Amino acid sequence: MTKLSMGMYAILFLLLSCSPKTTNSTDSTPVQTTAKSKIQVALCLDTSNSMDGLIDQTKSQLWKMVNELASSRRDGEIPDIELALYEYGNSGLSATVGYVRQVSVLTTDLDLISEKLFELKTNGGDEYCGWTIQSVTDDLEWSKSNDDLKLIIMAGNEPFNQGKVDYKISCKAAISKGIMINTIHCGDYETGVRTFWKDGADLSDGEYMNINQDAKVVHIETPFDTEILELNQRLNDTYIGFGRSGKNRKEMQMEQDVNAASYGEANNVERAVSKSKAAYRNEEWDLVDAMKKDDKVLKDVKTEDLPEAMQAMTKAEQKEYVEKKATEREEIQTKINDLNTKRQAFIAEKQKTDGAALTLDNVMLKAVRKQAEAKRFLIKK
Question: Which region, left, alpha or beta, applies to residue 92 given φ > 0 means left and ψ of -120 to 50 means alpha?
Answer without folding.
Answer: alpha
